[in-house]
Write a structure and sequence with these properties.
11 strands, four-stranded antiparallel sheet, alpha+beta
């Protein structure tokens, strides 16, 4: 349960100031709206519809302090934006925001990998390019030999609960490889934290050869 908190006034006045200095607790609901608890009552805010159940908005049609407070907390990353929910990063344990319908283990932006990312293998020191996220845990994802990713000795220092990724070794990519070519190459499977990101979107709109030529 979130506690009521206050924020610095930042020299503001009126509703903008009250949105910050009055104690409020903002809690997201499953339907994308937010409950705002104040010393004077509890109200429901719909950010996308710009409505609140308080008299200031419902009767006066003003952008009330509750709407403003929810917007502030979304901007500050205190609560998820509409359409997203809180989750725990499977690598670092920090809170992150993911789509409402997301399933399986989740990752924060610092530990997420996307197709085309250049990554460093912490065990071998090799460079690889991520081909895709599998969305399943290391202790439930088999490799092509049928052995679980988590069962390999080289993966013992990484969480069994972590999501797995497929990646190809950089030196195995042809110089004219683009993002669309990655799925056709032989890929290996790794737990998320074994791969350390070097560059986001290394293989993307431009081919690998064009990226290397610019290096």
């Amino acid at each position: 349960m979130r506690r009521k908190t206050t924020l610095p006034s930042d020299g503001l006045a009126g509703r903008a100031r009250r949105a910050r200095v009055e104690p409020m607790a903002v809690r997201p609901l499953r339907d994308g709206r937010y409950v705002v608890e104040t010393d004077g009552g509890t109200y429901v805010v719909d950010v996308e519809a710009r409505t609140c159940t308080c008299p200031d908005n419902a009767i006066r049609h003003a952008r009330c302090k509750h709407l403003r407070r929810v917007a502030i907390e979304i901007t500050r990353g205190e609560v998820p934006p509409p359409g997203r929910r809180s989750a725990t990063c499977a690598v670092c344990g920090d809170e992150t925001f993911v789509p409402m319908d997301a399933t399986g283990p989740q990752l924060c932006p610092d530990h997420e990998h996307r197709a085309g990312d250049l990554v460093h293998d912490r065990e071998s020191g090799s460079l690889l390019v991520v081909t895709r996220a599998l969305g399943t845990r290391a202790d439930e994802t088999p490799t092509e030999t049928g052995r679980l990713v988590s069962a390999y000795e080289s993966n013992r220092d990484y969480g069994d609960h972590e999501p797995t990724f497929e990646a190809v070794y950089l030196d195995s990519l042809p110089v004219d490889a683009g993002l669309a070519d990655l799925d056709e190459l032989h890929a290996y499977r790794f737990p998320a934290s074994r791969l350390s990101r070097v560059e986001r979107g290394f293989v993307g709109a431009r081919t690998l050869g064009e990226r290397l030529a610019r290096a």
